[in-house]
Write a structure and sequence with these properties.
heterodimer, A: mainly alpha, 74% helix, elongated, B: mainly alpha, 22 helices, 0% strand
Chain lengths: 156, 433
């Protein structure tokens, strides 16, 4: 429940980023017509797009947004499906745990060296913190799926 | 064969095996790429690659256009623009035998000009077109086949998400790719309409004539779709004449359509939220695919498979057209099993150097492979558009729908042949920029 609430909250933040990206770009285009474009708008849009994606990672997984090839899986007997699901959960957990930790470490490196964006000089490390958080929540969601499968609760 | 190449081939084999487990294609590419890179270098190097690639892909300004164009499409989807488009096409073509099916194709083409999602187009046109065709006692095959096939025209019509991703992977101008897709999209729409006409000559009972409308009614129907025309002109005109970049075009298109829908009272708060959340889901799926392909591509580059492949092909004594034909066959077979977008992100790092070495125009190649993978969305066993139509026309057996798309598959094959024989169909407009 807590994970779902957190993932929904992050999805809402993602939605705000989407609208903000659109408005900033339109303000820049309109500003250009009158000779006063939004300074660093491309930078802002890139950073907001990154936040949009980072915050959407858990909900994207939970809502099965990603493309998979399932016509062979559907022919598996239930026992094989269960083993397959356990196997997939484990590799997803390991992979996204790696992503989360590595992004966190990379963020600390960028923070230490004081890396900022080229025009607006905004710190960029927080993007990696967001990505690390998104991957961590995604890892926990997959772990919760795994527990459900092991307990015999239907995963489909 | 070097150890690196063997590891690369093994990586591709494991990737295919992972597909059979139903692991998301994006995850599978990222995981195999990461594991392969780890094996060939070190764990530290692979972990560094992981964070750098995710960061670079997620903060890429070029990819920011994906959510914006997808948002434009979903606003169009939820604000009911499609009904007006169908109404216009119906009033123009309904009187001809099979005219309602032709109207479906025309409406799908027009809707594809503002919505880059084939599934959204199929679902919308299926909901509107199928009951109309049932009312006029159309045969199930023609009715369902035209919706399933017509929904796929959007993959060529700008703003096509697949063309955006192809452009990013090959570093081609997205604006030029969009423009390259326009004439082929109209060509396919024309071939589909011709296929319906011939089909109705052979099976007249499949497509009865509809109502006849006066010239005044027809003109009024055309004028009523001004918003689609307006947004398409802003987006494509802005890019064509260099007023703004594709990302800005996406934002302006989405904003214009949003304002029009709100002013006309066509978009409720609930539907606005649905458009936002559907956009987020689709964007996350698309950009994760690019991230996965980037990691996998770095692994492949390390194995030198793309370069070795290009050298091998260059050393063969085959004419270039034969190699292109084999690549097309691979896309055709692959498209039957894997989603078009996933297939393109997966294979472009391998085929891109080969096609470049052969001296073919990459704009043309992009349009041709998108056209071929379009067949995959209506052919068994995956045929996603067929399943969407089945979800709407619950009484129609799946086999009937697959039978119904056969004329359109033939039209697509002819279209691909025309595109290969006359590459300037795709390259003519971009050359004007």
């Amino acid at each position: 429940m807590l994970l779902n609430a957190l993932s929904n909250f992050m999805k809402m933040l993602s939605g705000i980023m989407l609208i903000a990206m659109m408005l900033v770009t339109c303000a820049d285009v309109a500003g250009n017509l009158f000779g006063c474009p939004v300074m660093g708008s491309e930078e802002l849009v890139s950073l907001m797009a990154a936040l949009l994606l980072a915050f959407m990672l858990p909900a994207g997984h939970r809502e099965k947004a990603h493309i998979g090839v399932d016509f062979i899986y559907l022919k598996f007997p239930p026992a094989v499906k269960a083993v397959d699901n356990v196997f997939l959960c484990i590799i997803r957990i390991v992979f996204f745990a790696f992503v989360s930790v590595e992004c966190f470490k990379y963020a600390m490196v960028l923070k230490d060296i004081g890396q900022v964006s080229a025009v607006l000089e905004l710190p960029t490390y927080y993007i990696l913190y967001a990505l690390s958080l998104g991957s961590a929540v995604l890892t926990l969601i997959v772990a919760a799926d795994l527990i459900r499968i092991v307990r015999g609760v239907s995963y489909e | 064969m070097s150890e690196f190449t063997i590891v690369g081939i093994l990586g591709i084999f494991i990737l295919i095996l992972l597909f059979f487990t139903r692991l998301a294609v994006a995850y599978a590419m990222a995981i195999v790429g990461f594991a392969g890179y780890w094996y060939l270098t070190s764990m530290n190097a692979a972990l560094t690659l992981l964070s750098r690639d995710f960061y670079d892909v997620f903060t890429s300004y070029g990819l920011a256009l994906v959510p914006l164009f997808v948002f434009m499409g979903f606003i169009a989807f939820y604000s009911g623009v499609s009904r007006k488009l169908y109404d216009m096409a119906y009033k123009l073509m309904g009187r001809i035998k099979g005219g309602l099916a032709m109207a479906t194709i025309a409406a799908c083409t027009a809707f594809g000009a503002i919505c880059g999602s084939t599934t959204a187009t199929t679902a919308t046109m299926g909901t509107i077109g199928l009951p109309e065709m049932k009312r006029y006692t159309y045969g199930d095959r023609l009715a369902t086949g035209s919706v399933a096939a017509g929904g796929g025209i959007g993959v060529l019509m700008p703003p096509s998400v697949i063309l955006i991703i192809y452009g990013i992977l090959t570093q081609l101008s997205i604006g030029k790719l969009f423009i390259a897709g326009i004439i082929p999209a109209f060509l396919i729409a024309f071939l589909f309409i011709a296929a319906i006409y011939i089909y109705c000559l052979i099976y007249p009972e499949q497509g009865a004539r509809g109502e006849k409308f006066s010239i005044g009614v027809r003109i009024k129907a055309v004028l009523e779709i001004w918003e689609t025309f307006f947004v398409f002109c802003i987006v494509m005109g802005g890019m064509f004449f260099g007023f703004f970049t594709p990302t800005k075009a996406g934002a302006v298109g989405a904003f214009s359509l949003l304002v029009i829908a709100v002013v006309q009272g066509k978009l409720s708060w609930r539907n606005f939220l649905n458009a936002v959340y559907d956009t987020l889901k689709t964007s996350c799926m698309v950009i994760m695919l690019v991230a996965g392909a980037t990691i996998f591509g770095h692994f492949l580059a390390l194995t030198r498979i793309p370069m070795e492949g290009a050298n091998l092909v260059a050393s063969l004594n085959c004419p270039p057209w034969m190699i292109i034909a084999v690549i097309c066959l691979i896309y055709f077979i692959g498209g039957c099993f894997i989603d078009a977008l996933a297939l393109i992100t997966l294979t472009i790092p391998i085929f891109y150097p080969i096609v470049t070495n052969l001296g073919y125009d990459l704009l043309w190649f992009g349009v041709v492979i998108v056209l071929i993978t379009q067949m995959g969305i209506i052919t068994p066993p995956v045929g996603v558009n067929v399943y969407i139509v089945k979800g709407i026309a619950k009484d129609t057996p799946l086999e009937e729908i697959f039978m119904g798309v056969i004329p359109f598959i033939l039209a697509l094959i002819i279209g691909t042949g025309i595109m290969i024989a006359f590459p300037s169909i795709a390259t003519f407009l971009p050359d004007l920029i």
